[in-house]
Amino acid sequence: GENVEQHPSTLSVQEGDSAVIKCTYSDSASNYFPWYKQELGKRPQLIIDIRSNVGEKKDQRIAVTLNKTAKHFSLHITETQPEDSAVYFCAAPGSARQLTFGSGTQLTVLP
Amino acid sequence: DTGVSQDPRHKITKRGQNVTFRCDPISEHNRLYWYRQTLGQGPEFLTYFQNEAQLEKSRLLSDRFSAERPKGSFSTLEIQRTEQGDSAMYLCASSGKTSVTGELFFGEGSRLTVL
Lengths: 111, 115
Description:
The structure holds two protein chains of two kinds.
Chain A: E1 4-7, E2 10-14, E3 19-25, E4 32-38, E5 45-51, E6 56-59, E7 62-67, E8 72-77, E9 86-93, E10 99-101, E11 105-110
Parallel strand pairs in A: 2-11
Antiparallel strand pairs in A: 1-3, 3-8, 4-5, 4-9, 6-7, 7-8, 9-10, 9-11
Chain B: E1 5-7, E2 10-13, E3 19-24, E4 31-37, E5 44-50, E6 53-57, E7 65-68, E8 75-79, E9 88-95, E10 105-106, E11 110-114
Parallel strand pairs in B: 2-11
Antiparallel strand pairs in B: 1-3, 3-8, 4-5, 4-9, 5-6, 7-8, 9-10, 9-11
């Protein structure tokens, strides 16, 4: 099955700085890579996703890059704000369209 | 609210008791997933339904766990003879009628505490 590894487990940045979270996956057939944000006590919610036919996707301050050869993808958040503080999870599809999640990155944006 | 709803939100039980959780997915979604999340970890896949058919079950899922989706709408997850290691957040998610993997819409979860 799919194995997803995520780094770092914690990340602190100053407000306004950029944050980068990286994930690697094992199944070369995986073709869909979402990122979920989970605020304390809340449900995970999709913030951005990318399919394997593109190398980069941007949505305002958030971007995801994909390197299929190296089997890794990254989340980039620019101009971080305090409301970006949360746990971020990457994921990749296993069989039957279920997602395998990484272990999460606790992002703290310091004012 | 037309999102995924789960009930109960919190359940405290004694070891050895049975518990059942219910999930109501977004009405037009035909795929339904159960995940388990422990503190500091990502959601861990338990099982998956397409309509009423249970198509996949994690190898990590013990025989004490069973899930149903009898009419292809709501789903239940039952844990028999609960153990302290079953304490976790149980998340339900649904996704729509597409032929490719897409966004999962999660419920708020059912938190289980086994004493």
